[in-house]
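Case study: Peptide ABC transporter permease.
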Amino acid sequence: MISALLKRLGQTLFVLFGISVLVFLVFFATPGADPTSRIAGKNASPETMTRVRHEYGFDRPLPVQYATMMKKLFITRDLASYVDRGELVVPEIVRAAPVTLSLATGAAVIWVVASVAMGTVAAAFRHTWIDRSLMMLGLIGISIPVFWLGQVANLITQARYHDTWLFSWVPGLGYIPFLESPVGWFRALIIPWVVLAVLFIGIYGRVLRADLITVSGEDFMRTARAKGLSPTRVLLVHGLRTSMITFVSLFGLDFAQLIGGGALLTEVVFGLQGVGRLTYQALSNLDLPLIMASVMYSAVFVVMANAVVDVVYVLLDPRVRDAR
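Here is what the predicted structure looks like once written out:
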């Protein structure tokens, strides 16, 4: 067990190192990405450019610059933005992370519950009008762009019907911290949660339905039916557990991607200052310290999600444990 954990830790550190090096090199390999001119300002004199380059260490070899940036990011945590001089990037990520975590977690709860129900019911009543109706609804959800659905939701809840009894409880756009007001936090995020979850409900429901239908012909399912177990028990206890392997794989990657800033469009539409919006602003300004901090934040969640998925695999299907 200890050796396996150490091996996983070594793989994690190697992946994070590779990502950080790649982001650093791509930044300096991009034409016009040299931050010296942006820091020094327009029409800066050659003397000013030289002084800024020396002050920020841009005249040092790339390995030294990389090591200095990693030290400031992970050890001293005083890495400052190149665009907003003096603004530390780690506190910016810390302020934005709860917004993205709240948005992604709430949406994940909705889409997991709804998609499991949709996929299971569709598989139980496959080739009937119930199955076709649910799959049609899922396809519609997949086809609707998030930004369009978000704008429509804002038009209904924030403008046209905001003063009615139906949506008068919806606060203005923005994020309300949970510790400040749990009720306000929930009210501010319930609409973004639903909007973000719609896409995933359709995808996950269709995937789960296909896996349940496929696994229904497996030997262990036929054995369970031969023992006289009810069709509901066979489907929910035996079939659903095995079919969740693909579901869990998708969830681990999608959830980590959302936590890392993949909910950008939802954050922009609903005025949420999350990691996605922060990363977009950093990319627009080619602000390497903020880009590096946000990318490493995202990479940590993706790597952690893969590790958790491996553990869940073993819990869901003993055959995976035996194969290892």
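For the exam, be able to explain this: The CA atoms of residues 73 and 79 lie 5 Å apart.
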